[in-house]
Amino acid sequence: MSSLDRLTVKIFADGADRASMLDLSARPHIRGLTTNPTLMRKAGIANYRDFAKDILSAITDKPVCFEVLADDFAGMERQAVEIAGWGDNVYVKIPITNTQGASCRALVERLADRQVKINVTAIMTLEQVQDVISALNPATAGYLSIFAGRIADTGVDPVPLMAKTVAMLKEHPNAELIWASSREILNIFQADAIGCHAITLTKDILGKLLLLDYDLTSYSLDTVRTLYEDGRTAGFLL
Prior knowledge:
Elements: E1 10-14, H1 18-25, E2 30-34, H2 37-42, H3 48-58, E3 64-67, H4 73-84, E4 90-95, H5 105-113, E5 118-123, H6 126-135, E6 142-147, H7 148-153, H8 159-168, E7 175-180, H9 186-193, E8 198-202, H10 203-207, H11 216-234
Parallel strand pairs: 1-2, 1-8, 2-3, 3-4, 4-5, 5-6, 6-7, 7-8
Helix pairs in contact: 5-6
């Protein structure tokens, strides 16, 4: 049994490349998929609605998260209801605030009461976690996406916040925590150790799963050989 097989945390693929999304969705260790406007822009997506419906016509048995585009809460609510209608497996990503810093708490509460499955995203503080949890409807499934990687980018350890959120969500069995903006494979095991429900990984990080359980002495030798060959290929002389 590999390290991956022993994990309880669910791995979600994060991206916007159609071929990659369809390929990854067919793999048993990928339990869901997420995307966002930034990834879609980089992938050259021209029509959000057409792209999303095309993906959902092929992926029907795993959760897929699509984000609203509006910045005003009325617009977010309208878009969220439409996006939710694209499929039973759709979770609507709602930013924790709008671009002016206004909390989305009231919107989350309204959508949850309407049975819209949501994924509140870009969370980075305990106060934001508390806001979202206070707005949850016990009957409605949802995710809280804490951007652990971005928290770590500031020099702050995200694990205490993640662990505290896991404990808080024990009273909300329909809500799950996502470790978002992952930076490395180690994050999977950090998330698993604290009981985090899911973690999002980009295609680049997913590719590193091949290194799981790889002998470090062999990996060291591979690295030495790569460095040597790169210097030789470059024609460097001393």
